[in-house]
Every structure is written in structure tokens, then in C-alpha cells.
Amino acid sequence: MATQQVAVRLPSELLASLDRLVESGVYKSRAAVVRAGIEAVAELEHRRSIDRAIVDGYTRTPPPEAESRAALASLRDAILEEPW
What we know:
Elements: H1 12-23, H2 30-60, H3 65-81
């Protein structure tokens, strides 16, 4: 996989937090911490875009009333089956 270097400036407090993560062994290096953070943000945004697409789809074409009633009935049944 080809990689490219990205340089960013961080406030001292944030850099200290990164260093604590490295010192405690959570991450191998500062770069590993930054990489994990960027990957987490990218994944979060990917999931948000999927969520928005689903909401947009249901907004454009809502489920039929009968389907909504059946889903609620199924939910009620599942709750009643719980051993609480």
C-alpha cells in the first residue's frame, strides 16, 4: 500500500495526551496514535453517510402503515418475552 506523509501542528496539551498513550503502551508511536484517530474519524463519517442514506430513503418512501404496525407489534412481543 502506498503511503504519504501528512504533517499537522498540535497544541501542547493534545501532544502530551498522545505521548501519554505511547508511554502507557496503548500505541507504539505518535504516528500510530494519529493514524488510529484518522481511521476512526473516517469510519465514523462512513457510517454517518450510510445512516443519512437510510434516513433519506425512509423519508422519501416511508414504510406502509401496516408494516409500521407490524414492526411495533413485533417489538412489543419481544419486550414481553424478555426475562426482566
